[in-house]
Specification:
Layout lengths: L3 E4 L19 E5 L4 E8 L2 E8 L29 E2 L6 E2 L18 E2 L4 E7 L9 E7 L17 H7 L3 E5 L4 H4 L11 H16 L5 E11 L1 H12 L8 E5 L3 H7 L4 H10 L7 H10 L2 H7 L26 H10 L7 E6 L17 H25 L4 E6 L19 H6 L14 H17 L4 H6 L11 E4 L7 E4 L15 H5 L2
Parallel strand pairs: 3-5, 6-7, 9-10, 9-11, 11-12, 12-13, 13-14, 14-15
Antiparallel strand pairs: 1-2, 2-3, 3-4, 4-8, 8-10, 15-16
Helix pairs in contact: 4-5
């Protein structure tokens, strides 16, 4: 596909055809042979193409169905002939819960059922060179109940500006009952995961128009975003699209740990909106016709999932997109997954960010420790081990920094999600007057480590930092930011000792918290 990027008031082409005309950095246009998208300068050195639709709106008779392909030409503005992508699109319907990140974890745009859009962040100088750049696709977490690509602390502008040669894509996917209805009347389940696969296919087919290399896509995410990214190397072992995988505090085992019997949620919501019916097909038809706002408000704090977030649905085992834990173990041991390099890691106090809490009292530290160890630490060890067993390059980190800007309460420690603002460079948005002397250096180091993997998933971390690939029971764990120092060191994985006999998660007690 031929492609170019044109800067309004003069033009500059990715293909290397530069002009000497003056250009206005405010707007930029990405072109293919079929359509053109107008973006905008979102920050110094970064152009953003925002709110680009990647599938048909999942409304009307498309509600609760897999994402349908979209003819990009149909989204063009009739007067300009351009697809306008100069502002964030709406996020998907969700139920916000009390997050330790405060307002910075809330989307900056309105909610809508028409929410299947993505953002492309491109280094501003890209149009001056005929070089295809690596692409980092980052997927948000939120327990499959909340999140979006307009959340302030998820904005990758600083990361793109500092890396200078990496394109970042962020997307939306359907949440709660809209993305994971799990009705037995449906032929296809886990729509929110299918949304992500459809978006990944769109990126593969169109990223060249923005100067990206479709052969150098690294898929990553945090929490639920990491869970589903990990799921894709099992659901699409022969056609993963991605060349590397980057998981922050999430694996498919974590997703299974948080899932409940969610068909009961669909039934409860149907009853709330007046769609209760013993005939499940009639129930589904009624739910498809129901008012979207009514469905959103039928999700409440009564239906907290085990990670403290309201849920009207979560991934279920369909043996297509999601498998059982036993099946993942079998496939992991046999190497029946996409054999691509992986960087994965967790924080030292994951549990502090995923269970119910009160600002004054904090959380139950015993439960938090069990969650940290059994669900997060041990799943990182397990999956790092699967890669290592089959000699697939894998690196594993352990994030230990407790930086004031992102530590909203003193009891949090290095909590679940603490690494995200440092990766994106958005930690100052959470600071509220708190300042640390080493935070900026730590952020820059984390960005450099991740960028090294994204540029060269197979060899980058070894050649750029001398970091060894992970091997269980060896000194190969990358310790980050001990005592808040902006450094890393190779550790013996003593933290993994708990995984020899992990404490069972007391779900019944947890549910009563």
């Amino acid at each position: 596909m031929k492609f170019s990027v044109t800067f309004c008031a003069g033009s500059l082409f990715v293909a290397g055809i530069a002009t000497t005309e003056p250009w206005n950095p405010k707007y930029v246009v990405a072109k293919t042979s079929k359509w053109a998208i107008r973006g905008v300068e979102v920050s110094h050195g970064v152009h953003g193409f925002l709110g680009i639709p990647y599938a048909q709106p999942p409304i009307g008779n498309l509600r609760f169905l897999p994402p349908q392909p979209l003819d990009m030409a149909t989204t063009q503005d009739k007067s300009s002939g351009l697809i306008e992508a100069t502002k964030f699109g709406p996020v998907c319907y969700q139920f916000m819960y009390n997050s330790v990140a405060g307002n910075q974890s809330k989307p900056a745009t309105t909610e809508s059922e028409d929410c299947l859009n993505l953002n492309v962040f491109v280094p501003a100088h890209q149009g001056r060179h005929n070089i295809k750049l690596p692409v980092f696709v980052w997927s948000y977490g939120g327990g499959f109940a909340e999140g979006g690509n307009s959340v302030p602390i998820y904005n990758p502008g600083d990361f793109v500006a500092r890396s200078k040669d990496i394109i970042v894509v962020t997307w939306n996917y359907r949440l709660s009952v809209f993305g994971f209805p799990n009705s037995p009347a449906l032929k296809e389940q886990n729509l929110g995961i299918r949304d992500q696969r459809r978006a990944l296919e769109w990126i593969r087919d169109n990223i060249a128009a923005f100067g990206g290399d479709p052969r150098r896509i690294v898929l990553g995410g945090q929490s639920a975003g990491a869970d589903t990214a990990h799921a894709m190397i099992y659901s699409h072992p022969r056609d993963p699209i991605m060349a590397g995988l980057l998981l922050q505090s999430g694996t498919i085992q974590v997703a299974n740990a948080g899932s409940q019997q969610v068909d009961a949620e669909f039934v409860r919501i149907a009853k709330t909106v007046g769609c209760a019916n013993d005939d499940r097909h009639q129930e589904l038809k009624c739910m498809q016709d129901a008012d979207a706002i009514a469905l959103k408000h039928a999700i409440s704090n009564i239906t907290l999932n085990r990670f403290g977030s309201p849920t009207g649905g979560a991934p279920m085992v369909d043996n297509i997109t999601i498998f059982t834990l036993n099946e993942y173990a079998k496939r992991g041991q046999s190497g029946d997954f996409a054999r691509i390099p992986m960087l994965l890691g967790s924080t030292s106090d994951e549990g502090q960010g995923v269970i119910n809490w009160q600002p004054e009292k904090g959380i139950n530290q015993t439960f938090a420790r069990i969650i940290t160890e059994t669900i997060f630490t041990c799943s990182m060890l397990l999956n790092g081990g699967f890669h290592a067993t089959h000699n697939i390059p894998v690196w594993r980190y352990w994030f230990r920094g407790v930086f004031p800007e992102v530590t909203t309460y003193p009891w949090l420690g290095a909590y679940h999600g603490a690494d995200v603002p440092l990766l994106m460079g958005t930690y100052k948005q959470m600071a509220d007057g708190r300042r640390g002397s080493t935070t900026i250096q730590a952020s820059h180091l984390l960005q450099r480590i991740f960028a090294s993997f994204i540029r060269n998933p197979r060899h980058g971390l070894l050649s750029d930092f001398g970091l060894p690939t992970f091997r269980p029971n060896t000194s190969s764990l990358i310790g980050l930011f001990q005592d808040n120092t902006p450094t890393y060191k190779i550790m013996t994985p003593t933290v993994d000792g708990v995984c020899k006999n992990p404490t069972p998660v007391p779900y019944e007690e947890w549910d009563r918290l």
